[in-house]
Amino acid sequence: MGPPGRVNGAGPGPGPGHGPGPPPAAGGPPQKRVLTLEVLDEMRQYAKDSRHPAAQLDYAKALIEAAVTFGNDDPDPKRQKKNKEALFMEGLKIIKRLATSGSGIGRPAYPDAQFFLANCYGNGSLGLQIDHDKAFNLYIQASKQHHPASTYRAGVCYELGAGTKRDQARAVQYYRKAAALGDTAAMYKLGMIQLKGLLGQQGNPREAISWLKRAAAQADEENPHALHELGLCFEKAGIPTVIPDEAYSRELFTQAAGLGYAPSQFKLGHCYEYGTLTCPVDPRRSIAWYTRAAEQGDAESELGLSGWYLTGAEGVLKQSDTEAYLWARKAADKGLARGEYAVGYYSEVGIGVKQDLDEARRWYQRAAAQGNNRAKKRLTDMKRLGAMRRMRHDRARQGAQGSEDDNCKVM
């Protein structure tokens, strides 16, 4: 129900720290430049002169990047290793200092550095051993300085019991605080909790929609989820206080799809295939959206492309049984029950692959195990047809034997 690595994981990889801290003052080094020795030196000097923790953290991250990209053409492997280790250790030292004692005497620890270091402890990056206790403590310390993302992650830790005892009430408390601080993922998470009555909370659709709308207003490529969930809420009746609005639902799915969210891209592919949610039937758009989602490994969209290749789309997509089978197989290999059924059918009939009833039966069984009713029916039909074939075979065999006996009679 949540963004990968944000809602359901306590230790996602280091992402952009989106907590407090002003950008470097005018005259500082540009934020996006190809990292060279000259640029690194400029960043070092600026971090030293400004003494701003944000500049020091940027410099530390640049040192770690330099440890990977610099000196790869050094003919002396020992010297290369030594120089890389020196850059890396200096960067890590600065980050740890910022996360514990800030940028100078009398200054508090820098919450963005705490957030970054906590992420590293959470997933074991920067060569650090995974330590959820340290990650949790850093999130809590940063949260005390009202760092939105760290406050959200503290909630995740309480929800999952990562680095601390599992506590649903505290998890909700931290999600609320993070949402109030403006964290998009927290707004989405709180909305879903209220919508579905999760974590021991009583459902509150009105509040849920309010939080989801606030999260949707801040949606970006990292946090498109609220747009999609709102689209589902307004798609059809069923949620108290929500009046269905297909046009608005379509608009929300389109925004999320534009941000690269595969489930919304699949949704639009389906809408343009069947003409739902005020979308016209448009094979070109349907195939385009399915393709964008399939490129991200979305199994439903892979199966959608299989269907289009099976029939073809005049002037848009050439019919191909082979492609139909291959796309269905991609979906089936991901465990999608409808994909498993499709591969079973293609194998039974011989579409895009050599006919093989045993192979078809195996795929039907996998789909049936997930509750796919069409697969269950095909297994029943195949069993009945197999029994009928055996009966006909046995009768034919008995008839042949009877004829031979008659021919052998002497009298």
How would you explain this protein's 3D organization?
- With 411 residues, this protein is an all-alpha fold.
- The protein has 18 helices and no strands.
- The longest helix is centred in the last third of the chain and has 36 residues.
- The N terminus and C terminus are likely disordered.
For the structure shown, list the relevant keywords.
about 400 residues, about 65% helix, disordered N terminus, mainly alpha, 18 helices
Strand content: under 5%
Q: Strand pairing plus helix content: what structural class?
A: mainly alpha
Number of strands: 0
Number of helical segments?
A: 18
The SSE order reads: HHHHHHHHHHHHHHHHHH
Give the gist of this structure.
The protein is mainly α. The protein is built from 18 helices and no strands. The protein is 66% helix and 0% strand.
Topology:
Elements: H1 37-50, H2 53-69, H3 77-101, H4 111-123, H5 132-144, H6 148-160, H7 168-180, H8 184-196, H9 205-217, H10 225-235, H11 246-258, H12 262-274, H13 283-294, H14 299-311, H15 321-333, H16 337-349, H17 357-369, H18 373-408
Helix pairs in contact: 1-2, 2-3, 3-4, 4-5, 5-6, 6-7, 7-8, 8-9, 9-10, 10-11, 11-12, 12-13, 13-14, 14-15, 15-16, 16-17, 17-18
